Amino acid sequence: MKPPSPSPNRALGLISFSVLLATSTWFSGTAATPVLRELWALSDVQCSWLTISVQLGFILGTFLFALLNLPDVFPARIVFFASAGLAALFNSGFALLSTDLTISLVFRFLTGITLAGVYPVGMKLVAQWFRSGLGWRFGILLASLTLGTASPYLMFALGAAPGWRLLLLTASGLSLLGGCLVLLFVPRGPYLRKAAVFEPRMAFRVFRYREFRIQAFGYFGHMWELYAFWSLAALYLTDSFRRTDSGLVDSVPLLTFFVIAAGSVGCILGGWISRKAGEREVALLSLIGSGSLCALSWWLFDQDAAIVATVALIWGIFVIADSPQFSALAARHCPPRYTGTALTIQNGIGFGITVLSIQLTAWLGQSLGWKWAFVSLAIGPILGASALLRLRRS
After folding, report:
1. Distance, CA of 90 to chain centre
2. What 8-state DSSP symbol labels residue 158?
3. Contact, 31 vs 177, CB < 8 A?
């Protein structure tokens, strides 16, 4: 049955809300880390694998989706629904069947594969409804993804910590609901081009386009920092609060939610500014801001808890504000019929980089202490900003 045709703005709202619901499965295992650390006697590096396994699955998923051109050959709303439903299934397996780290990593990996059909495909769904202004509209979409990623921390902060399995099942239910909303209420957009021909080499040919390639390198620098910061911020904050004896350690789950969720403000504000300043300029400013905070994280660590919390919230705004701008730049500079493939392969490589940065940062935190762990993340924004300086003004 064909869904009723909504207005473009209503379609944007439905897609964004569905992405928020489906991506609640992304960090559900990461948010459960404090409980699982005690339950399974995990180290900091072992805990990081609860996030890394999802990233690895997402990487494999994006390469499969890109090589098979799934977002461009098949209706995007069908791909989104199937992916959100499978994410709910595998996340439920994590909730009900995990008895140790090994089993949990298998389900986290499988969940990551399915998320490759949620986030990048969500961007293609939005691109079907608008000819211009993608920067700020992707900002709304990425704000929803940010809130969805942060939502498990809020559940724990509100008292769900004793029932971590219930938390995961709740996230699974939300993911399934998100998939159903897109399937039932978001038809093909008016700017959908004719379905692409299956061409697996397009997953790599998109990098022949100079402008696409340059902005992709900027995006890769952004990704070096983003997920390492998101997934390990709680460990950094906990260690900092303990050193200063602030008594705020028990508030870390709630603060982590606000730090990640603050990125939704950055996405929307950056998108609004991009309408006048341009996507390139907003992304460049965001990289400079977050990179500076990475470089100063060693100094921040020893400051008063109120200062640490305030700066962490500002950091949360800058660290993701450039992401929707990179998506808009990628959509503009890639072959039009293969927008879904281009966005997916760019995401896949970017998330491959997150695996290295998360593991390196976790190792530095465990070996040298969390005071110094985030300094290495400045490498990404520096290289990303250098790449963007070679891109023509938006």
Report:
1. 19
2. I
3. no
